[in-house]
Amino acid sequence: MNRAIVLLSGGLDSATTLYYAKAMGYDVRALIFDYGQRHRREVVAARELARAAKVRFEVVKISMPWKGSALLDLSLRVPSRGIKKNAIPPTYVPARNIIFLSFAASFAEAVGARAIFIGANAVDYSGYPDCRPEFFKAFQAALDQGLKTGVQKKGIRILIPLVDMSKADIVELGQKLGVPFEKTWSCYNGAEKICGVCDSCRLRAKGFLRAKVIDPVVGMRERKRV
User: Fold this and answer.
1) What three-state secondary structure class fits 194?
2) Is the pLDDT of residue 226 over 90?
3) Which string of b and e fits 98-123 if b means at least 16 CB within 10 Å?
4) How many whole angstroms separate alpha carbon 88 and alpha carbon 106?
5) Eight-state DSSP code of residue 131
6) Number of domains observed in the structure of the chain
7) What is the CATH number of the domain that holds 35?
8) Could you give the 3-state DSSP secondary structure of residue 122?
9) Are the C-beta atoms of 45 and 70 separated by less than 8 Å?
10) What are the pLDDT digits (tens) for 148-163?
C-alpha cells in the first residue's frame, strides 16, 4: 500500500482531502500544524478528525514571531465584510504553504511516503497566492530537484484533488466519503463558537447552502444570515 502525508488543518477542505486519500487506498499519516494561529480550535478539530479516520498523526508546533497576518497578530482585525476581488486579505499568512509543504516533504521522505495531499482550493477561496495551481507546479519542481527521492527519480508527488472544485462540490464529495462535518472547524476568529461573518465562515456557508446540505457546525440560523 502506498503511503501518503495529508496536511490536516481541521477545516472542511482538509478533512475531505483526508477521507479522499483514504478512499484512494493510501496508508495515510496526517500532519497538523500549531503555528500560533488565533483559531487554535482547528488544531483540536484536526486531532479529532484524524482519530475518527483512524489514521496516525503528528502535531508540529512552530513559531512565527514576525507575524504578518491577522491570523497571527491579535492586534489586526479579521475582515467581516467580505474580501475585495483580486485582493489578498490580511488573513494571508506569509509563505504558509511553502513552510507546511516543506515539513510535509521532509516527513514524507523520512517515512517513505510517495505523495503529499493538500486540500488547497482555487475556486471558492480567499485569494491566497499559495493556493493556486501555478504555485504547486513550481513547488513540485523544487521538490524534484531538492530531494534525494527526486534526484533518484522516485519523486514525492504533491496532490491537490480539490483545487478546481467549488465549495459546494467539496461538500458533496465530503458527504459521499462520509466526512464527519460536525468535527470540522473553519472559523478564523479564536472564539468558542463560530463568528459566521469571517471570509472562511462565509465560504463554508455558501458551499453547504449551494449543496443543499445542512452544516452541523453552523446550523440553520447562521446559514440564513449568509
Assistant:
1) coil
2) no
3) ebbbebbbebbbeeebbbbbbbbbbe
4) 29
5) G
6) 1
7) 3.40.50.620
8) coil
9) no
10) 999 998 889 999 999 9
Measured CA to CA, the distance from residue 51 to residue 57 in angstroms comes to 8
Q: CA 213: distance to chain centroid? A: 21
Joined grid coordinates for residue 147: 530531494
Lowest-pLDDT choice from 47-51, 82-86, 164-168: 82-86
Cell readout for 216 is: 452541523
Inform me whether the pLDDT recorded for 224 exceeds 50. Answer: no
Q: Rounded CA gap, 117 and 53, in Å?
A: 15
Q: Is the pLDDT of residue 14 over 80?
A: yes
pTM of the model: 0.93
Q: Give 127's contacts (C-beta < 8 A, 6+ positions apart).
A: 83, 86, 87, 88, 89, 92
Instruction: Tell me which residue has cell 482555487.
Output: 122
Which helix (H) or strand (E) is 60 found in, with range?
strand 56-61
d(CA 42, CA 81): 22
Q: Which domain holds residue 196?
A: 3-225
Binned at pLDDT 50, 70 and 90, residue 116 comes out as: very high
pLDDT of residue 154: 87
Strand order in the sheet with 3-7: 56-61, 27-34, 3-7, 115-117, 157-159
In sequence order, what are the residues at sequence separation of 6 or more whose Cβ sits closer than 8 angstroms to the Cβ of residue 136? 118, 120, 158, 160, 163
pLDDT over 70 (residue 106): yes
Report d(CA 167, CA 162) in Å as an integer.
9
Mean pLDDT, the chain, rounded, equals 93
